[in-house]
Amino acid sequence: MTCLGIDTSGNHLTVFVMRDGNVLSVFHENVGLKHSVTLMPVVEDLLEKLNMSLSDIDVFSTVIGPGSFTGIRIGVATVKALAYSLGKKVLAVTSFEALAYNTNDLSVITVIDARHENYYVCGFEKGNITIEPCFMGLDDLKKLENLPMVSDVKIPVSSTVCDLVGGFISAVKKKLDSATYDIESLVPLYVKKSQAEEERK
């Protein structure tokens, strides 16, 4: 089975191609949130170098968030369009899973920086969610400090900064069996409303 993975949830753009559990190629670069103009050229270039085409892909996977609202929408919309036009499967991976799959037993608190001492948090115990995805401030996060914690960047709480690229790839490997033809099931994970939505209140 061949999978194309896309992560547009942050400043970096990640695209990888994997066949039967073996990663064939990876692109990871800071594109400064210019995913809308860089994503498809990167995908096409990656496939061309592998002498492959989009029709060779069996599963299209993307990180559904949390992260950049615009970036997530670009990734989800692109994967849905490709899967729909080619009749292929889709696979959703959360940013939390991309962090959790850096650990062996999947028992960890995952923390995504939401800026201004705010964080997106989700807890796992052997892969099962024990703390539902939520938005919390630093004071509340410090109450979880006695638990093993992984984060996407250095935070003012004891945690291990993990490689989101490696975690994303690991998560896709583990979750491939749950890929589905139900394209409409692929939706962004928004833990909190965007700043624009908050300001419209």
Structure characterization notes:
- The protein has 201 residues and is α/β, with parallel strands linked by helices.
- It has helices at residues 35-49, 69-86, 95-100, 138-142, 164-175, 195-199; strands at residues 2-7, 12-19, 22-30, 59-63, 89-93, 108-113, 118-125, 128-137, 149-151, 160-161.
- Strand 1 (2-7) and strand 2 form a beta hairpin.
- The termini are far apart.
Q: How would you briefly describe this protein structure?
A:
Helix content is 30%, strand content 31%. It is of the alpha/beta class and 201 residues long.
Blueprint (SSEs and pairs):
Blueprint: E1 2-7, E2 12-19, E3 22-30, H1 35-49, E4 59-63, H2 69-86, E5 89-93, H3 95-100, E6 108-113, E7 118-125, E8 128-137, H4 138-142, E9 149-151, E10 160-161, H5 164-175, H6 195-199
Parallel strand pairs: 1-4, 4-5, 6-9, 9-10
Antiparallel strand pairs: 1-2, 2-3, 6-7, 7-8
Note the main attributes of this structure.
single chain, alpha/beta, 5-stranded mixed beta sheet, 31% strand
